Structure formats: structure tokens, C-alpha cells
Amino acid sequence: MSNSNHWSKEETADFSYTFLAWYEREKRTLPWRENKDPYRIWVSEIMLQQTRVDTVIPYFLNFMTLFPTIKALAEAPEDTLLKAWEGLGYYSRVRNLQKSAIQIMEDFDGKMPQTAAEISTLKGIGPYTTGAIASMAYGLPTPAVDGNVMRVVSRLFEITDDIAKPKSRKIFEETMQDIISRDNPGDFNQAMMDLGSSTCTPKNPSCNLCPVNEFCQSYEKGTVGNYPVKSKKVKAKPVYYVGMIIKNEKGEFLLEKRPTEGLLANMWTFPLFPEEMMTHEVEVPAGGLHEIASEQTQQIVLKQLQEAMTQKYQLHPTFMKRPLPEIKHIFTHLKWFIACYYGQVDQVKLTDLPENCEFVHPENFEKYTFPGPQQKMLAQYQKNIGQKK
DNA sequence: AATGCGGGGCG
DNA sequence: CGCCCAGCATT
């Protein structure tokens, strides 16, 4: 965890002085830095979300020509607006921008609200953008914590909180709250972001050129490379299954016990088959098996289901034509997608079932351990089929 | 806490 | 070419 006391008053003042002097010398000339017009700052900050400065500049200039005021933005026709954003991506940003402009016309008398609390009520403005506008336009000492700032601050104070976790943002906001310049919070925030993009870069930071390296704890210790701590979200690997929900004439369901080792060991599920076994002859839509449009393709899949059931269980179910909507279940390292087919069998001959399989009545399900995916399959069945007769 | 949104840069 | 990036809203 982070320490809560960072620098003495003197060190804090010393840092601000050095840092702001550097910013004054080195800051880039950008169209939205010409003045402190809150509208310009707002639009630029929205455009800069997930978008590089060089990309934003021409869009910003064009946007300001087309919609020079909040009122003009609020009244802009949808197609003109979208056209002005074309190519920037994340189009909900521009829709929210206009929603907020309308909100400002109606609730704030056409003037940008001037407190952090009010600014943050606007659509598309979260914690970062609130801090950016409040500090840059109104001189409020509000942190504006984005990825750059978390990186810089984590190195300055050797903060080990994982910046990939949403709740870590709070730690960095508190740290910024402690060190932000009360005299010039807007430039302080912008200096943080400039430093992060120019010098205190993710890879190969230019510490020897850094204006504040004498304040940097990780630089002093030679541990800059350890920061920020950022967990890689190990992408859960997708695995596709077909689930068989087989009911016999006594109302019992076929359950299968999983192997004694490995994932979900010894737990019970409806039989699961790797999807490829059913679909090696067909193309599966992105949304899963239940989105197969062609009757013919469905028939091929059904035929494969039949063969699989015969081979493994000596059962000959009558299947529904389409599977239930695909179920998702996320493990740490795997993401299961299961398309369940419901089928009925007449035969009650149990002798041919494999040893790890049983027909079980729902009354007795509580005696069996069901893992998450099985709970979801069961719920999906009950929702779609279990009710109706 | 996890996911979708859309481009661009990078290996 | 696929992988990763990162604020915000939504769920």
C-alpha cells in the first residue's frame, strides 16, 4: 500500500517551483491552451480521451469553427456533429458532448458549471475530465488522474498499487491532492501529463533529462523499471462447448461427473462436448451456434449431436432444433462458451451408460455438486424450457 | 469488477 | 497482422 505522507511543505513547494518552471519552458503550443475558455478545454479533453494530441489538433480546430459555443453545439444537427467526429472513434463521446451541452443550456443557464461536483454530473465527464476542467479552467486544486499521471506518481513515490485496478485511482488522487500546486493546479496537472508523455514514458524513460528526477524515489533507488505496477490482464482463453440437456420420460436429467483431477474436479455437469466435434463441417457465427440462420446448417449440427450421443452414451435423443442462447462463464484463465441443446429420450435403459454418468431427478440435484457453468446451464434451461410443458 | 466502445502505434 | 492501449458508461 502507499504511504500517506509524501513530502514536507518545503519539498512540496520546491517540487512545484521546479516542475512549473519546466512546464513554462517546455510546454507545447496547442490550440486549446490559447486561453482558459472552459468550453474549449472541455471539448479538447473529451477528444483527447484515448486519442493522441497530433490526431486531435485538426479535429479540434474544425470542431471549434463549426460549433464555436456551447449553444451552437447544443443546437447542432446530428449528422453535422457526427461528420465532425468522423474518424476519431468512440462516437458516444460526441453524443454525450451534445447531451451535456443541452444539459448546460437547460440547467446551468448556458454557462459551464464551475464546481467539480457539478461538472461531474455532465454526460461523458468522469473523474479525470472533471479534474482537468476544474483545474485548467477554474484554478481549482483538483487532481486529474489518467494513465500518465499514475505512471509518474507511482515512480515519484514508489507506489506499488496496481494501476490496472479501478480502485487504485483513488490512491493516486489522494497523492496528487497532497502535492498539487495550490497556486497553479491547472498547469501542474498539465505538466504531469506532458512529463508522462515526453519523458516519464512507459518504456525507456529519459530520467537523465527529467526536470524533477531529484525528487523521484524510484530514480534515487534505481527502481524506475519496477513502476508502475500493472497487472497484465491475462486474457481468458475462449473455449467452446456444446452442452447436452437430456431428459428421460421420468423427468430425470443426464449428469456426468468430471474427472478426479483438473478443473472442477469431481463436480457434476450436463454432458459437455468440445464444440469442434459438432461443427467441423460448418461455420459458426460470432454470436454462437444459436445464431445459425440456415436450416441446412442446423441439420448438420444436429446430426453430429446425435452421433456423439450414440457413441458416448448409447442414447438417441430427440433434440430441439436450436440451442439455447450461449452461456458465458469466466474462470481466471479460461472463458467458457456453452451452447446447450435440449433433448428427450424414451428409453430408460441405464445399463449402457458410462460409469461416471447418471440420470438424476431435479429433486435430487441438491445432492450433487454443481459448478458455476452448470448452475448457469440449469438456469438457462429453466428460463427457456423448464416452465412450459 | 467486468465489458464495450474505435481508432492508432508497436512488435 | 494481431495485440495492446485507457476514460467513461453500463451492467
- Give the proportion of residues in helices: 40-55%
The named CATH superfamily of the largest domain: Hypothetical protein, domain 2
Under CATH at level 1, the class of the largest domain stands as: Mainly Alpha
What is the alpha-carbon Rg in Å?
30 Å
What is the count of distinct domains? 2
End-to-end Cα distance, whole Å, is: 57 Å
Q: Can you name the CATH architecture of the largest domain?
A: Orthogonal Bundle
> Biggest β-sheet: count, sense, barrel?
5 strands, mixed
Order of helices and strands: HHHHHHHHHHHHEEEEHHEEEEH
CATH topology of the largest domain: Endonuclease III, domain 1
Portion in strands: 5-15%
- Count the DSSP helices: 15
* Number of strand segments: 8
Class from helix and strand fractions: alpha+beta
Q: Tell me, rounded to a whole number, the average pLDDT.
A: 89
> Unreliable stretches, pLDDT < 50, 5 or more residues?
none
Overall geometry? elongated
Keywords: 4Fe-4S, DNA damage, DNA repair, Glycosidase, Hydrolase, Iron, Iron-sulfur, Metal-binding
Function: Adenine glycosylase active on G-A mispairs. MutY also corrects error-prone DNA synthesis past GO lesions which are due to the oxidatively damaged form of guanine: 7,8-dihydro-8-oxoguanine (8-oxo-dGTP).
Enzyme class: hydrolase
InterPro entries: A/G_AdeGlyc_MutY, DNA_glycosylase, Endonuclease3_FeS-loop_motif, HhH-GPD_domain, HhH_base_excis_C, MIG/MutY, MutY_C, NUDIX_hydrolase-like_dom_sf
